[in-house]
Amino acid sequence: MKGVSILGATGSIGRSALAVLDQHPDRFRAVALTAGTRGEALGRLAERYGPALAVVAEGPVPAGACGGTEWRTGREALLAAATHPDADVVLNALVGAAGLEPTLAALRAGKRVALANKESLVCAGPLVMEAAREGGGELVPVDSEHSAILQCLAGTSADAVRRLVLTASGGPFREWTAAMLATATPADALRHPTWDMGSKVTIDSATLANKALEVIEAHFLFGIPYERIEAVVHPQSIIHSMVEMVDGSVLAQMGFPTMELPVLYALSYPERLPYECRRFDPVAAGALTFEPVDGERFPAFGLGVAAGREGGTAPAVFNAANEVAVAHFLGGALGFPGIAEAVGDTLGQWRGGAADSLAAVLEADAWARRTTETFVRNYLPCC
């Protein structure tokens, strides 16, 4: 029986994790559940799963919260959930840079971190890997692409890998022209063709910023240089990523889109547990197609990969600028092309810096947010 802390229990990944727990109540139990602001939804989950700790990071404890669960609020409470003594695994499904400190805390406490918060590695990859070494913690990816790579590698060393190929669905705008993208609304961008995700991740999928974040994450997770990591558009979302070996063999992990299987693998790794879900049918899957990433229509991808290659605090700046820009797009202050424009403007002003401490990363993050806010206030569409 493994104790599991789920950070972001009310989101899409959190719900997938709880579905996994439902199928294996003899193997996993929820010891801590957290939510950002959705206290009432968290209250219903706490009543059902009976965790020792429930945390609302930004908001009040729901009315009537009782039972054997301890209720807390705020940043320190979130870190307590990430380091709970009964937690063997901490599933970090928080959105954005807010997930960094819980990742660091859990790794320093020797926990397995089932990482769905890619921003942890994007913003502070060296610090995260150092925390894992110092605390004896373990990183196991939850993103479907990185879970696929982990499964394909199956203990193979990085020396045997020629390249990693991350697949991208292409999002809702894969076939839109640049002129059409200029008129795209938040409602348009939130209509993802294959995945059911939260609004921030869905917009990142539409701009392909999400794929840039995943390239950076793959670099740190698997120790592969950026020049050996590629991305390709695969609209069917059946092949979740591929690994080409030095002998020319290409391994791919396949399946119909669901986050429950990557979550299950992260919780049980390296063991495989039975699971009731939609079985893969190659005939039903149909033809599998691939296309190159179009960097001209989706410049956020190139901006993010370039930031990763630059290293230091540049990825943290990219991530923070993107978070602010996406929020303003959803709020109506930026057009869809304005997301990449805002990120590019902020990165263009950054003078660089080493990501050698949490303070340095947080300072870069704060600077990027202020700078992007200034861009948005003065925003005029380029066309």
TrEMBL record:
Gene: dxr
Classification via HAMAP family: DXP_reductoisom (MF_00183)
PANTHER family on file: 1-DEOXY-D-XYLULOSE 5-PHOSPHATE REDUCTOISOMERASE (PTHR30525), 1-DEOXY-D-XYLULOSE 5-PHOSPHATE REDUCTOISOMERASE, CHLOROPLASTIC (PTHR30525:SF0)
Catalytic activity, as annotated: 2-C-methyl-D-erythritol 4-phosphate + NADP(+) = 1-deoxy-D-xylulose 5-phosphate + NADPH + H(+)
Family: Belongs to the DXR family.
Origin species: uncultured Gemmatimonadota bacterium
GO molecular function annotations of the record: 1-deoxy-D-xylulose-5-phosphate reductoisomerase activity; isomerase activity; manganese ion binding; NADPH binding
One GO BP annotation of this record: isopentenyl diphosphate biosynthetic process, methylerythritol 4-phosphate pathway involved in terpenoid biosynthetic process
Domain DXP reductoisomerase C-terminal intervals: 254-370
Protein name: 1-deoxy-D-xylulose 5-phosphate reductoisomerase
Domain 1-deoxy-D-xylulose 5-phosphate reductoisomerase C-terminal: 139-222
Protein residues bound to 1-deoxy-D-xylulose 5-phosphate: K118, S144, E145, S169, H192, S205, N210, K211, E214
Needed cofactors: Mg(2+); Mn(2+)
Pfam families named among the record's database cross-references: DXP_redisom_C, DXP_reductoisom, DXPR_C
Residues that, per the record, bind Mn(2+): D143, E145, E214
